[in-house]
Amino acid sequence: MNTDYRGKRPFKAKGVLQSFYYAFEGIKHTIMTERNMRIHMLISILVIGTGFILKITALEWLFILIAVGGVISLELINTALERLVDLATNDYHPLAKQAKDVAAGAVMVYALLSIIIGLIIFLPKLIG
Ligand SMILES: Nc1ncnc2c1ncn2[C@@H]1O[C@H](COP(=O)(O)OP(=O)(O)OP(=O)(O)O)[C@@H](O)[C@H]1O
Description:
Layout: H1 16-33, H2 35-53, H3 58-88, H4 94-127
């Protein structure tokens, strides 16, 4: 049995820089093709701008950055999963639907959590 995993990766990145390049390609592709990603990016820019205007503390920045980065990372994984499902089938399949819906659910849970984090941090400063 062939156990050399590396031999099965003909498109492997040649170095760290090339790995970064491919990662940026993935991010660029997601921004260009997924409307939700563009919405996440826009909201992230607004939230970070508001953070500067309201001069939030270092601890508050940590929560905001974890929230913003988490949503964007999850959207990237969601997009990767959508592509894998589409690679597996173009036909209607209940498992394809479940895979995509569950991945979308993961993004939604984290996005809702991020909204709550944003409200907890910004609301008192805006109405106080
Ligand atoms: N091959 C399939 N078989 C069954 N249902 C599918 C299939 N492909 C997509 N769906 C259903 O259609 C929905 C939308 O699929 P699509 O690939 O357009 O994702 P999307 O709209 O880009 O999702 P998201 O909003 O999470 O980015 C899925 O959540 C799923 O319910």
